[in-house]
């Protein structure tokens, strides 16, 4: 039995775009038969939280010191390349 993975959604404030991306990813992954735990944070909080999550989806640059995989979430704001990003997220969840 695989454990439930945790995604950290990050943006500049930890409120606006990270919430929009969290909702979009949750809905898309449900359609793909996947669930996960979600956390949200400000980009500045990510280095302190990264060890407790499996990977990060961010709409803003993240510190290079973070060693967990970071998926760029700007596609959810622009709509360009969104399916590719969803495929990346699915691949991380299925690892």
Automatic annotation (TrEMBL):
It holds the Pfam family PTS_IIB. GO terms for biological process: phosphoenolpyruvate-dependent sugar phosphotransferase system. CDD domains: PTS_IIB_galactitol. The keyword Disulfide bond does not apply. It comes from the Bacteria. One of its GO terms (molecular function) is protein-N(PI)-phosphohistidine-sugar phosphotransferase activity. Keywords: Phosphotransferase system, Transferase. The keyword Ribosomal protein does not apply. Residues 5-95 form the PTS EIIB type-2 domain. This is PTS galactitol transporter subunit IIB. It comes from Mesorhizobium loti R88b. The lineage of its organism: Bacteria, Pseudomonadati, Pseudomonadota, Alphaproteobacteria, Hyphomicrobiales.
